Amino acid sequence: MTRWLVTGAGGMLGRDLIAVLADAPGAEPTAAARADLDVTDPAAVDAAVAGHDIVVNAAAWTDVDGAEADEAAATRVNGEGARCLALACARHGVPLLQVSTDYVFPGDATAPYAEDAPTAPVNAYGRSKLAGERAVLELLPERGYVVRTAWLYGAHGRNFVSTMLTLAGQRETLDVVDDQLGQPTWTRSLALRLTQLGAAALAGHAPAGVYHGTASGRTTWYGLARAAFALHGLDPERVRPTTSEKFVRPARRPSYSVLGHDRWAAAGLGPMPDWHTELSAAIPGLSAALSAPRAAR
């Protein structure tokens, strides 16, 4: 059996990771939610890592706007937490898969960001996640894997797709930003890819370093909302395009978040599926989660 430790196991991605690993032959997952493990506590992290064969760090401060108000707190989780895990993994000789973000890039590109493209975050959240990336790559040059993802949605947490479908029942029309470009990524699909990468790492088939775990293709938030409406059986014409200037928020958002996927070939893996294909597969589960009684969620 391969013993997996998943931190942040109570989150949207973490819950899908545990579910995917539970179905994976030979995998024995340990779920460490925030209440179970403080990733900024070195002694607790070392004790948790001991006895495992591989670690996936899905624990994160994900409040992008909140990070602008308290960058130090965000960096403790996203930066120092990753460093604690990397130190423990180095001590116990196990690989670490660190989930990161497209926000490490400035968002001013016109072609997909390669895995080795220069980083330059434009907000506190991106800086905090970049600190975590650097710690993992520095402390685990042979066993550290950084998987950048973006625009996540899933059945087990608040996200853009579920918010749009909820608002559809409350408003006749929705104005959605059409000047930010990215790759909507289903957490279940990312969980499967992380499991595949971890297996390849343990088998010695995947070189350490940076990978981009986002769906193929690209769209805007407006395009994503229209697609979600259509797949949910709603009229997509109820979604209207607008600009980022109409929705001013504390943290600046990159306008271009399309990531390249060339490095998967080094691990013997192809790119992840197209975003619309993923969304089509995800919508039934999201719809069921939204219609479930609140007490059952």
From TrEMBL:
One of its GO terms (molecular function) is dTDP-4-dehydrorhamnose reductase activity. Keywords: NADP, Oxidoreductase. It is an enzyme of class 1 (oxidoreductase). Residues 4-283 form the RmlD-like substrate binding domain. Signal peptide: none annotated. The keyword Lipid metabolism does not apply. Its EC number is 1.1.1.133. InterPro entries: dTDP_dehydrorham_reduct, NAD(P)-bd_dom_sf, RmlD-like-bd. PANTHER family: DTDP-4-DEHYDRORHAMNOSE REDUCTASE, METHIONINE ADENOSYLTRANSFERASE 2 SUBUNIT BETA. Gene3D superfamilies: NAD(P)-binding Rossmann-like Domain, UDP-galactose 4-epimerase, domain 1. Pathway: Carbohydrate biosynthesis; dTDP-L-rhamnose biosynthesis. This is dTDP-4-dehydrorhamnose reductase. Catalyzes the reduction of dTDP-6-deoxy-L-lyxo-4-hexulose to yield dTDP-L-rhamnose.
